[in-house]
User: What shape does this take?
Amino acid sequence: MRFSFLGKRLLEAVFIVFCIITINFVLIRFMPGDPVVHIIGEDEYLRLEAEAPEVIEEVRREYGLDKPIPVQYVTYLNKTLRLDFGNSYRTKLPVLETVAFRMRWTLLLTIPAIVLSALAGGALGLRTGWKKGGRLDAIISPIMLFLNTIPTNCMAILVLMTFAFQLGLFPISGITSGGLSGLAKAIDILWHMTLPLMILVVLRTSSYYMLMKSTVQSIRDEEYITVARSKGFTQGQVLRRHVLKNALCPYLTSVCMQFGHILGGSMLVEVVFSWKGMGTLIYDSVNTKDFPMLQTCFLFIGICVVLFNLLADILNMCIDPRIREEGHHA
Assistant: This one.
């Protein structure tokens, strides 16, 4: 029955990835502007347009831009299945290598941010949701609500100005100072990522806090909670065995589904701190209309979101056996 449930979710994930590939192709291809201009440069394009327009057409044929859209789509599908994403219009380097290199730096920020913020927000939301209107709720909830309204880029600029420019406690930009290796390099990278990671953790903690608090408040008066309390269980036992267990499924699902949101937030933070991850890569690719790079970036991000949603299904199946039973009966 477990494999039946997982198989169904896996098929859904494959279909969603196919839809992402299709939408990705359509959106990029219908962006304004001629990509040939950004392949050879605007000045060179204008010169060739006046002196040797056949060269422009040759470039267009080389990159397959002269073919009908359906043909380009079939070619794109074939290359995607073979993990052949071509070369960047801007750098001429293989797209897959560049995206894989940048993606690991983005994941270095987002994975710890998701784990830390989910734990902190979940723990605080569990306590304040259980004791609604208590002293802890009165202190933390207004702070979290305020933090939840702050745009990511605004907080990033504010933190950068305060802790990097004014106080000089952290580096202004970049991933590493360079010229280091081993443990010294790892410590230097952690030093550089402290501020962007702190911003992501603080902002996502506020969101996860509100989510867990509302979830706990919706189940704290359920009959099974009242029965557990009437049996003489301590508050800690009720919270661990009954409240947390029943709140985890919707909480984990929402946390995993918001992976796309934290990726968006990390992109804004990356641009502010010049963190060479997917955010700065997409920013540079949009400015230069680097179609192959943009397509691959969006594809990788979409696949990550799908994988995290699949992870949520697996975690929920492990937590709640009723989900496995539903998958078996289905």
